[in-house]
Amino acid sequence: MDEHIVEGYYFEDIREANKAKKEYFNICKLKSTISFDDIAGIKKLYVKLVGKNYFTTPIGYAFLQEMREYLVENTGETELPLIGVARTNVVKVPEVIKEKYPEISSGKYKELKRDYGRLLKTKRKLQIVIVAMAVVILGMFYIVATNENIGYFNTEEKILNKYSAWEERLNGWEEELKLKEDELNAMEKMQEK
């Protein structure tokens, strides 16, 4: 037996179906305890049930309507309180979607709409993350392009420049030493003569 069917009514939401089952059980208990000879008691019960909005499913509304019709038949009174229908979260499916996808019910449309909203929020969050990552990556490229002292890209060139500078200094010192040595040798030769 389908859990969505209760006393000839089909419910799309299983929670509503369970609620209807509870209402049907309570109605059966009420019917077994009500004395249909006591019109005043039935009227009092009807007024109490309608006033407290005790029933919220079609099964409960049908029972209240039966009670109302019974009271009108037996008392002739038409000034009974009206049955208040609880507002349900039924979403009307737009006509455009109904025409294109006739199999979509209002419950399914409501679920799809909720899922679509969640996906939009996720999309916005991901877009923010993507933009942040792009900014970080562009910042890294900017740093690499403008900073000459970064990383290993210019390391070989830096080392070669450093060694060539040392080599130039050493060559300069060597030339100075040779000159001084030549001068000293020349001075020694002059002193020997």
Can you give keywords for this protein?
two-stranded antiparallel ribbon, 193 residues, 3 domains, 2% strand, mainly alpha, 6 helices
Your description of this structure?
With 193 residues, the protein is mainly alpha-helical. The protein folds into 3 domains: 71 residues; 44 residues; 43 residues. Helix content is 70%, strand content 2%. The protein has 6 helices and 2 strands. It has a two-stranded antiparallel sheet with strand order 1-2. A hairpin with a 2-residue loop joins strand 1 and strand 2. The radius of gyration is 47 Å and the shape is rod-shaped. The model has no long low-confidence stretch (mean pLDDT 83).
- The poorly predicted ranges are none
Largest sheet: 2 strands, antiparallel
Instruction: Work out the helicity level.
Output: over 70%
Q: Alpha-carbon distance between the termini?
A: 134 Å
How many β-strands, per DSSP? Answer: 2
Please report which band the strand proportion falls in: under 5%, 5-15%, 15-25%, 25-35%, 35-45% or over 45%: under 5%
Secondary-structure-based class equals mainly alpha
- Main-sheet strand order equals 1-2
